[in-house]
Amino acid sequence: MAMPVAAPAGPLVQPAMLPLGPGSDSLAVGTSRMVGAILEYTRWPAPRPIVRLCVVGQARHAGRLSDIHLSNGAALQLSTLDGQQDGPPEQCDALYLGSLAVTPMQRMVAGARGQPVLTIAEDDPDCRSGAMVCLLYRPKILSFQLSIDAVSRSTVRIDPRVLRLSKGGY
Fold it and tell me: Do the Cβ atoms of 65 and 51 come closer than 8 Å?
C-alpha cells in the first residue's frame, strides 16, 4: 500500500534553468555547478571554513559534487549517510538527498528544520519532502524549485541573488 504524500507546504519558486552540455556525465556536471551555486548563496549562522555536504540515499547525479570549489575559500567536505537516521547528524551543513523512500526522506528533512542545514533533494520533482531546494531534471535542462516556506523555517539563509541563476548568472 502506497504511503500518502503530503503536498508541498507554502509557495515554491522555480527560478533556475541551466542548459546541460553533451556527454555521458552532463547531468553530474550540471548538478555540481547548480549545487555549488546554491551553496555560494547560502549563509549559515556562523561562517563555515569547511562546508560539510552529506549525501543521503542513492544519488544518481552526485558523481561530480567533489568538483565544487567555493569562491569564499571554504573547503567542501563530502560524506555519505545511509538515510536511516531521524535527521541529519551534527556534522552536516547541507544534505543532498538522493533517491529515498518518502518516509526516510521526510524524516531527514524534518530533522533538519530549525537547524543550520541546507536541504537539497535530487529525486523529488514535486518538492513534497519539504526540502528547501528540489532539483528538476528535464531533457538537456536542469532547474530547481525553491521552497520559501522551508527556507523561512531554517536558520540558514539563502540570498535572494540565487534567483540570478535563472539568467545564467553565476
Answer: no
State the residue for C-alpha cell 543532498: 96
The contacts found for 85-90 with CB under 8 angstroms, 24 or more apart, are: 85/111, 86/111, 87/111, 87/112, 87/115, 88/54, 88/112, 88/115, 88/117, 89/54
Tens of pLDDT along 47-65?
Answer: 999 999 999 999 999 999 9
Q: Give the helix/strand (H/E) hosting 97.
A: strand 94-97
How far apart (Å, rounded) are the C-alpha atoms in residues 148 and 157? 10
Under DSSP, the state recorded for 20 is -
Query: Are 130 and 145 in contact, with CB atoms under 8 Å apart?
Result: no
What grid cell was written down for 135?
A: 532539483
Joined grid coordinates for residue 85: 537516521
Distance CA 106, CA 75 (A): 28
Residues 76-105 have pLDDT tens digits of: 999 998 777 766 778 899 999 999 888 888
Longest dimension (CA), the chain: 48
